[in-house]
Amino acid sequence: xxxxxxxxxxxxxxARSQKxxxxxxxxxxxxxxxxxxxxxxxxxxxxxxxxGGTQPAQDVTKLxxxxxxxxxxxxxxxxxxxxxxxxxSPNDPRFAEQWSLTEAKxxxxxxxxxxxxxxxxxxxxxxxxxxxxxxxxxxNVTQGADIVSDPFTANDGDGxxxxxxxxxSGAKAGECGKDQPAQDEPSSWHGTHMAGIIAAPSDNGxxxxxxxxxxxxxxxxxxxxxGGTDSDISDGIMWAAxxxxxxxxxxxxxxxxxxxxxxxxxxxxxFVQSAIDQAVQRGSTVVVAAGNRGDAEKPVDxxxxxxxxxxxxxTVAATDREGNKAEYSNFGTVDIAAPGGDMRKNVGDGIxxxxxxxxxxxxxxxxxxxxxxxxxxxxxxxxxALMLSANPQLTPAEIKAAIKANARPxxxxxxxxxxxxxADAAKTVAAVAKxxxxxxxxxxxxxxxxxxxxxxxxxxPDAPPAASEPSDGSGSNGxxxxxxxxxxLHNSCQVEVTGGDTIQLDGARGVDELKINSVAxxxxxxxxxxxxxxxxxxxxxxxxxxxxxxxxxxxxxxxDRATIRLS
Length: 567
Description:
With 567 residues, this protein is an alpha/beta fold. It has helices spanning 18-32, 57-68, 84-88, 99-102, 151-154, 190-199, 230-240, 270-281, 373-390, 396-405, 425-433, and strands at 3-8, 37-41, 47-50, 73-78, 123-128, 145-146, 216-221, 257-260, 264-265, 285-289, 305-306, 314-319, 336-339, 351-356, 365-370, 493-498, 502-504, 513-520, 523-530, 533-540, 543-547, 550-558, 561-566. The chain contains eleven helices and 23 strands.
């Protein structure tokens, strides 16, 4: 990446003054040590900034984070023109075997989305058994953590540490207790397989391509020999989202997407739900597997499976190469379906990804076909990364709504229920990119400034509204005076508001509508209404109020505008 596009909030001096923009870029160059230079102002008022040549992805990410921390900056995104050519035509030798990305009938149409987005600038946490070293992954793997607290389960000589590599999860007969298989169980290299599906590079002439080949992979070990505990999974979610967890170093790159292809039969534990809620509140989109009990003697609806039964997640069922619900996939209470494969007829009908040849410990890197709702989950996690790269302002609720709204009908059979249909990457990325920074016309903003209000929100009721400026780079949306903010319909979002704004909710937490009465003197006056009446609260920043079961965090107040978070 060699260029960034920096959008400034309409009230910022940089939105109107060329001199102020140049001063801002010069200050950033001095602070970061990068050779930044101002190129020109775009028609929407944003600034095109040269990085002095192609820079490593990690350096570009740090620069974007630097700009996004500036309260005057609405967005900082890559100038994506350079991403398109090499990615739409991958040079990976086994790309032709990846039917799940390209085939028209039951694939996810991923290759058609790469002209708009490849996942650059997005971090996906893979909560699993770690990631084994692999030449088709290493370039995209960032520092992670080993959250497995039990040394036996960890199988690496200790408990929690900063090494998230997979030492092997295989177990000898009888080691995992009477409820586990009585024979030896080889290592699954499960997290390695998920990682390749999500974000294997597409232009390195090696192996395969991931759904989001430009994204970063953050390995978070929460399982190992004989599985893993809900408590470690809960802590893993919190660490991935940026919270402190004892025993490991703090996460310097909180994940935009948390992918969890794991679970067990049962309800979602309250403490795991709490971790998910906090992760979503921090801006992480959580994607989980529906589970693989669909072919059991008594097939299991996803609502009877944890983590699929948790709230504030995207629950994914699996389809086969013909577009039918995969015979093993749980069903019913799911949000979306994605390719998971079925190898009963042909091995090539499975999902090809990165692997390791070791039986118990790592040996040679390899590639292997596997099937499961795990693989389907990895596809949707990659899709979420593509969406965020195309439009960094999207909230977790908007991502979920857009994936469902832009799904296409299941091409085969799924009588038991496969959610909104089969995920379609090209259609979904195109839908959210329409409302990404830079899509509004110059007349939408005074003096060429970045617009504060949506200009072309889609009419479909489940589609995400047009995105506007973030206040802190964490996925918030702006709103003009008197604007109805349906982005928060599902009660979990972060937005910038002013007096007169109305936030429509679904009532699940006892509030149907939240009215922002006024924003002044570092305080927000608001009223929540429902069928049983209304509640009023006045809260200074920073601070928290609760209306029925709806938590309203007042993060900051700037004049007549406030940044609030609902959960």
